User: Fold this.
Amino acid sequence: MPVTSTRELIIEKADTLFYEGGYEATSFAEIAAAVGISRGNFYHHFKTKDDILNAVIRRRVMSTRIMLDSWQADGAGPRDRILSFVHMLIANRSKIMAFGCPVGTLCTELAKLDHVAQTHAAEIFGLFRDWLAGQFRVLGAGDRAEQLAMHILSWSQGVAVMAVAFRDEAFIRTEVARIESWLSALPNLPHAAKESQCS
Amino acid sequence: MPVTSTRELIIEKADTLFYEGGYEATSFAEIAAAVGISRGNFYHHFKTKDDILNAVIRRRVMSTRIMLDSWQADGAGPRDRILSFVHMLIANRSKIMAFGCPVGTLCTELAKLDHVAQTHAAEIFGLFRDWLAGQFRVLGAGDRAEQLAMHILSWSQGVAVMAVAFRDEAFIRTEVARIESWLSALPNLPHAAKESQCS
DNA sequence: GTCTATAGCCGGATAGAC
DNA sequence: GTCTATCCGGCTATAGAC
Assistant:
């Protein structure tokens, strides 16, 4: 028995292919070729294509949780932790310029396909939102914590879309710097964030 | 001869279907059914699916130009004109929550498909960027006009992505209000924008 | 310009041997 | 658990009648 099971390998390869080529456009044949198994063998592991999609989303949810936990553990404070999130745009810039954000692009594709898994995929955004809201709460944002979380999440999504449209790395860096200075300008006293200049 | 030619009708219906269902997922049969012609008749007007895509993009470029011209003519000033752009998010909120932004979602889909028309589709963003930069230039933004244009374009794209992911109309309104106050906070003296609080 | 008919391919999915 | 062989349907695209 291999260290990584065939099932896990299928999910892993499908994850990459769904990201880089889109869910609908990725065929069983492509996934099978990437894994190195026959198409027929496929159905021993997954009954339908939707099953693979759900497994891929579950995998992404799990890896997101792990990533957020590590940011939580490693970050010196809430601002530093939020920066971990923001700096994903820099770290993954090449892939983002080529394929966009994995979460955003999947959600929009599933929306157009009117796919049942759309809600499931949006859960990943939910994880980021809740975690970010937690950081803003520590910064004293109070009731506005969730709104600020959605704002920064939305901001990063906009950057990803424009980055893929114009293939512009400089734009990513400019916007990340903008987010950083917006974040430093946020007061950290309780309730003081309610009249931030930028809100 | 009809007022609207069959060719124009095909482009119009394809435009809607590509937006609502995605380019790849939309078949000739669906477009033909929407127009009310047979599949075979289709190829009298368009040789390939890519031809339709290009025609759809050309149509969108033209209608964008017309829209920008009307905003230019009707707006009382640059801030007012920029608000015309921003308020598209409110006016089209239902469609945006269901299918995202027509331009952003097409660009990301074509990027994943590695489609040659990707650059063509990004031209639409280019029109908005240049027009918005013109408005910011009137506001005295100088060299930063284009950067501010990209910022507000990116901002609206982020809102569209999150709106489709969470189907949240309140979020759209909150962010639009945020953009409005950000815009009013921008100084309109030449060079004064370089140290705006939010930049 | 519009139709029907059909070619040819590739998609997801199944059956059954090994 | 993996394979080959195959079904069925929908797809793009073509041919040719009207």
